[in-house]
Amino acid sequence: MPPARDANWIDGLRGIASFMVVCGHLCTALVPWLHSPAKDPKTAPHLFQLPFFRLAVGGRAAVALFFLITGYVNSIGPIAKSRAGNTDAAFNGIARSALARSGRLILPTMVATFLTWFLAQVNAYHMTKHVDAQWIRQGWHRQEPTLWMALKSLVKAETETWTIGWDEYDGTQWTLHLFLEGSMLVYMTMFATVLVKPKARLLVYAVLYLYFWQLGEGLAVGALKGLNIVFGMFVAELHNHYKDSATSVLPGPVPTLMILVGIFMCGYPQDNPQNAAWSHRMQHFMKLFAPKDADIRRYWDHLGASTVLLGIFFSRNARRVLTSPIFNFVGRVSFPVYLMHNTLIKTALTWMIYLPSAMNPPRNEKGEQMDLQRGSTVHIFIAAIVFYYILYRLAALWVAYIDPACGKVVNAVTNWMYGKAPTQSGGPILGNGTHTHEKSKSVLPA
């Protein structure tokens, strides 16, 4: 396997994670009952409510994957330089990465927020307010009555994404400030451990892991962000220890078994785990180890995603699959897919699914308009296929045009701060899929 292709298997995993996020949100919008393992304890489950199959419509574990990837790729370079005794280069790399990180994440997000704000101001979300899908309806935003009010709401949305973690025009951006915080956790940990030997750094990871495990603060600080970031750094340590021999360390069936067990754990249901025996047992088991009142769903997401990542890390065949052209493509466009999918759900997908009903809106006996009704199952299935085609086509255009433009801005600002002449680098912000491990920088989510 060519080194350059093997080096970007993590991009393929990132692409799968972004695809899963979109699937999860489509499920929440159109078939939210699939988030439960069964309708009730006495009802047989649907195929996509069963373990393994339910990953096709669930996206929660994908968010954990994004944090794992962030910890992994942002720590590989500093760890390699530390192990080689090149501490000056390690400190220099950490400083440069920490400075550029904010711009590489915030600038594209601001562009995405501007686009969804603009659509709201031209009333593109009008139909969204009247659909029968609650999750889509909650994403409706009014058209501001004046230009001044519209501009104020834009500034508010652009800033609150990073201050309180909420964008009123796109609620799915709530994770982005956590990714930025997670990156800074990586840089801070790397800065503090550059001078120590690898065994000492492993001890630091263990302490951090136990700290975040017992923290259990809601869904953001402990099990969602901290545990995954720390475990990602641990896998990066394994990479620098085993290097090219990682895929021959374990017997062939073991990584496969790890991936399967991880996928099973990732299938822990978002809602009503008591409705199925398998998930009810998982619920009781985790309550024995998770902090009181913690969101145990996030703990299963973490354990499942971490086991999958570890299994792929040790698996030659899994890496080969993830470095195929299709996975390289979905990996390259993963960030714009994440940024744009909610906007397209509220526009293109909503228009396709509800247009027939909107042309003849249902009304009650009083003549009041009722919720628009979606089309048939076949209609929705075809609309979803078209939606995915539009989403990935636009994401490819984003990578071709918007990413380079954002990259030039970030490079110009950082070069000015360094006191250097501007460079001509205008490559995609997320990387073009041929980066080396030391130069790899995760933007996500992930």
Written overview of the protein:
- With 446 residues, this protein is mainly α.
- It has 16 helices and no strands.
- The chain has helices at 3-7, 9-30, 60-83, 87-121, 134-138, 147-163, 176-193, 198-215, 221-242, 253-266, 277-287, 296-313, 316-322, 325-332, 334-359, 377-418.
- The protein is globular and about 75 Å long.
- Mean pLDDT is 88; it is low at 1-7 and 424-446.
- The longest helix has 42 residues, at 377-418.
- Helix 4 runs antiparallel to helix 6.
- It has one domain (3-358, 370-418).
- It comes from Lophiotrema nucula.
Low-confidence stretches: 1-7, 424-446
Count of individual beta strands:
0
**Shape designation:** globular
Helix content: 55-70%
Estimate the strand proportion. under 5%
Output the radius of gyration.
22 Å
Q: With helices defined by DSSP (H or I, 4 residues minimum), what is the helix count? A: 16
Overall pLDDT confidence: 88
Characteristic terms for this protein:
Acyltransferase 3, disordered C terminus, mainly alpha, Acyltransferase_3, disordered N terminus, 446 residues, membrane, transmembrane
Topology:
Blueprint: H1 3-7, H2 9-30, H3 60-83, H4 87-121, H5 134-138, H6 147-163, H7 176-193, H8 198-215, H9 221-242, H10 253-266, H11 277-287, H12 296-313, H13 316-322, H14 325-332, H15 334-359, H16 377-418
Helix pairs in contact: 2-3, 2-13, 2-14, 2-15, 3-4, 3-7, 3-9, 3-12, 4-6, 4-7, 4-15, 4-16, 7-9, 8-9, 9-12, 10-12, 15-16
Domain Acyltransferase: 8-363
InterPro entries: Acyl_transf_3_dom, Acyltransferase_3
GO molecular function, one term: acyltransferase activity, transferring groups other than amino-acyl groups
